[in-house]
Amino acid sequence: xxxxxxxxxxxxxTQGGRMTFQRRxxxxxxxxxxxxxxxxxxxxxxxxxxxSVNLSTIYRTLRWLEQEGLISARRFDESRxxxxxxxxxxxxxxxxxxxxxxxxxxxxxPSIQVIKTQFAGxxxxxxxxxxxxxxxxxxxxRQLRLAS
Length: 148
Known about the structure:
By secondary structure, the chain is an alpha+beta fold. The chain folds into two domains: 1-88, Winged helix-like DNA-binding domain superfamily/Winged helix DNA-binding domain (Arc Repressor Mutant, subunit A); 91-148, Dna Ligase, domain 1 (2-Layer Sandwich). The protein has helices at 4-14, 21-33, 39-49, 55-67, 110-123, 139-147, and strands at 71-75, 83-87, 94-98, 104-107, 133-136. Strands 4-3-5 form a three-stranded mixed sheet, with no helix packed on it. The protein has a two-stranded antiparallel sheet with strand order 1-2. Helix 2 (21-33) crosses helix 3 (39-49).
């Protein structure tokens, strides 16, 4: 079991769920699209392989996969109220969003583990996971701003 799809299949079976053809198409679309696709972007990919799948099926399946803990939903821009989806990866990952172009970049950094450990030591809390969101200018927008 080495691909994300294989891990999802294993997890579904463990939780008593079934891997239907449509669920597999949606998981494959999420895997293929990479960083934080919208339901509409998932629909566009799935629709190329199976035109009988409609957008409401995509939304319903995304909600179910989220409830099963296989994907996560997140809003990066509250003004747009548009959710973006990700396969739940075994490792934590964090996000940087450009305040100009709204591009989202995933990252990980060893200092985050240090922060979690220090916080747990000081607070007495048991930290199970972390999700960090940083905002600023991406290299392209920063360069454009410096040039103007």
